[in-house]
Specification:
This protein has helices at 43-49, 76-90, 103-114, 116-122, 145-163, 174-186, 193-205, 208-213, 215-220, 224-228, 248-257, 273-276, 278-293; strands at 3-8, 14-20, 28-32, 54-58, 96-101, 123-129, 235-240, 262-266. With 298 residues, the chain is an alpha/beta fold. The protein has a single domain, classed as Rossmann fold (3-Layer(aba) Sandwich), CATH 3.40.50.1820.
Length: 298
């Protein structure tokens, strides 16, 4: 059974938290979602893990059912600090496995950069899904590079406009209109229409201020050096072969920076691996959790 609660952060922001699994489980698995999404994208992994582990997801500030976003707080720095606060509030002791999809993976990297002592003491495993440590350096949206540069300029310009719109959300009637574009941008093949609908509903629910506000920070992040300095823990990096936002080059650079990391490239898959390749992502989490619970084996 899922327990819903809130964590109030030091600046007064409220984050919506979901917890499943036994409270006394030996390992806590904390799963972070991507930009414009929410914790529901992990629902299949939560169901698979919750019999043996305590599984926690939360909606990042300005996303899902969490509180509104102050424009000045729309940074990866802030998200990294938020993760530190959430861990102190809901998992103050015991080993933790972190899983991050897209922005969630970048949040984990920022947490490691800003709170290295906490990371070294608490984190016993990592699963990084469809993410990057190099901002938009490798993002070409599946387009020829000259066209991708034009798209990026347009995206950055529109992000500045959206950031000033605060909590305004588009009407839900746009859900159907957005589905074809999001299906092309975020998914590979095959693709379950129900997954596209879930993703689209999350995007439509995200305030435009959050969609535009995080864009500069996301595009500028550079954390390969941070990854290279991390203590060695069981780590798996997954990416879709057809990912248009964080292509395989992103995952390879992360896996190279993390000694001993396992790299999995999922054929024909896109950016939404938690939905598209449920078994692969779940298996990676189960394996890392098992190693985290038995540190003497590695």
């Amino acid at each position: 059974m899922t327990q819903h609660s809130e964590v109030q952060l030091a600046d007064g922001s409220r984050l919506h938290v979901r917890q499943t699994g036994p409270a006394d489980a030996p390992v806590t698995v904390l799963l972070l979602h991507g930009w414009t999404l929410d914790g529901r994208i992990w629902h299949r992994q939560v169901a698979a893990l919750s019999e043996t582990a305590r599984v926690v997801t939360y909606d990042a500030r300005g996303h899902g059912r969490s509180g509104s976003l102050n424009r000045g707080a729309a940074t990866l720095d802030q998200l990294g600090d938020d993760l530190a606060e959430v861990m102190r509030a809901i998992a103050p002791t015991g080993p933790v496995v972190l899983g991050g999809h897209s922005l969630g993976g970048m949040t984990i990297m920022e947490y490691a950069h800003r709170h290295p002592g906490d990371f070294a003491a608490r984190v016993k495993g990592l699963v990084l899904v469809s993410t990057t440590a190099e901002g938009h350096a490798h993002t070409v949206y599946g387009l020829p590079p000259p066209l991708a540069r034009l798209v990026r300029v347009a995206e950055q310009t529109s992000a500045g406009v959206l950031a000033r719109l605060g909590d305004w959300r588009p009407h839900r009637a746009l859900t159907l209109a957005l589905q074809p574009g999001l299906r092309w941008l975020l998914f590979g093949y095959p693709c379950d229409p129900a997954d596209v609908r879930l993703t689209t509903k999350a995007v439509v629910r995200t305030p435009l201020g959050a969609i535009g506000g995080f864009r500069p920070s996301v595009g500028a992040q550079q954390r390969l050096e941070t990854l290279a300095a991390l203590p060695t823990v069981p780590t798996t990096v997954l990416v879709g072969e057809r990912d248009r936002l964080t292509p395989p080059t992103c995952a390879r650079s992360i896996a190279t920076a993390l000694p001993g990391a396992q790299l999995i490239v999922c054929p024909d898959a896109g950016h939404m691996l938690t939905l598209e390749r449920t078994d692969e992502v779940t298996s990676a989490l189960v394996d890392v959790v098992q190693h985290a619970h038995a540190p003497s084996t590695h």
